[in-house]
Amino acid sequence: MAKLKPVKVNLSTNPSELLATIREEMPKAWYFFRKKHGSKTKYEKIEDQMLDKALEEKCDQFTDIDYWISPVGNRWMTYTQVQYYPKAQHAQAFHYSFIYYETYASCGAFFPLYSPKQCKDGKVKKGAKADGIIRYTDHFFYQLSERTKIEYRSKELIRKFISERCEHALTTDEEGEVVLKFNGGHGFGKELSSNPRMIECRTYLGDEQLNNKQKRKCEPVDMLYELTKDGTFMKDVALSTTLLQNEEEMAKEGMKRMNAMKKLGMEKHMMLFSAVSMSYIRILEDLLHIKTNAKQQAVISSIVGECSQDLVMKWVNQDASSPEKDKEFQDDLIEVMVKSAKKMKLKSVNRETITKRLNEIREEAKEQNN
Fold it and tell me: How high is the pLDDT of residue 198?
């Protein structure tokens, strides 16, 4: 199959041509951006200074935007944002480069999309190529302009959206309906194609504008957003990556911890906590129809840990095999899950839905054992 050449993109450009254009032109946009800062080495020094400044001033930092027009006429916007995460006391640099359009009648943007396997520690891996596109339509930006009071058909509207609101999470249902969570609002759209993946985001609503039905629909993506937005997981992952370079070393370190726990006589505590944590993660995934990754599971386990201390201390040396004790343990388990759901601000994951799903899981286990 012949390699697709870059084209001047518009709303009717097919996904394959659009993705090929982004893959071809983005490295050039990034090259000219660094060149305007002097050189690769000088740019890296500037980025290091921005990281230090973000930590010192405890706020995000931005480079100036570079505007570049490609040989076929696509207009690119490229810049770097250093994002500061207050809870983690951590700063991280993100590079933004995307095609935008601006006419007398409309404005919009074509933004590269990366799959989870192309990312590490919340950041796109070096050398990774986009495998999808999010298209933000003129109607999306028109609504954003109305609700943010930023002038429509302006580079400033697009820049403000990308830098201040575009840190997002997204979910897609079986019908291809897409929900995105931004800082302060939600986007709604449709998955137009799966190979390559192309999402069109058509509508913007502020958090306060959602009706009850929309709030329920947004809960899964809201949970994913809340789990990753404060950056705590980045700091934890960076630390573990520094100490443990590969899975074999991680396994050895895990065995050391387990041996230490055994010597202290606390292995039962750890096993009980793990059982509670994994039970809650399974129920969340079932109720919200999502699949959590390792980082999200680590954050969830941390939340469950705060809520399950009393349960662990109570049941670590008790036998819950009798019907009465089993019922008491289940009640305590549900209480932990309810507290954890409240901490995560999940309205649909409540005592009723947790109890119902937990009973279903237990019945399924009984049937498998019979």
Answer: 92
> For the residues of 85-125, what is the DSSP string, one character each?
ETTTTEEEEEEEEEEEEE-SS-EEEEEEE--GGGEETTEEP
84 phi, psi to nearest 5 deg: -100, 130
Domain residue ranges in the chain: 15-228, 244-369
Residue with tokens 């799959």: 115
Distance CA(241)–CA(244), nearest Å, equals 5
- Looking at residue 188, what is its pLDDT? 92
CB 141 within 8 A of CB 107: yes
What angle do the packed helices 294-307 and 232-243 form, to 10 degrees? Answer: 110
Q: Residue 163: CB partners within 8 Å, gap ≥ 6?
A: 60, 62, 79, 81, 96
Q: Give the list of residues 6+ apart from residue 223 with CB closer than 8 angstroms, or none.
A: 284, 288, 290, 344, 346
| Contacting residues for 207 by C-beta, under 8 A, at least 6 apart | 184, 185, 186
Question: What is the Cα–Cα distance from 30 to 58, expressed in whole angstroms?
Answer: 27
Beta strand pairing status for 90-102 and 177-182?
unpaired
Q: H helices within the chain, ranges in order?
A: 15-36, 40-57, 138-148, 155-160, 212-228, 232-243, 247-263, 267-288, 294-307, 309-315, 323-343, 351-369
Question: Using an 8 Å Cβ cutoff, are 132 and 115 in contact?
Answer: yes
| Torsions phi, psi for 94 (to 5 deg) | -125, 135
Mean pLDDT for 25-32 is 93
Unique residue bearing structure tokens 């520094």: 242
Distance between CA atoms of 187 and 138, rounded to whole angstroms?
13
**Longest CA pairwise span in the chain (Å):** 75
DSSP string for residues in 235-275: HHHHHHHHH--SHHHHHHHHHHHHHHHHHTT-HHHHHHHHH
> What's the pLDDT score for residue 194?
85
Phi/psi at 281 (nearest 5 deg)?
Answer: -60, -40
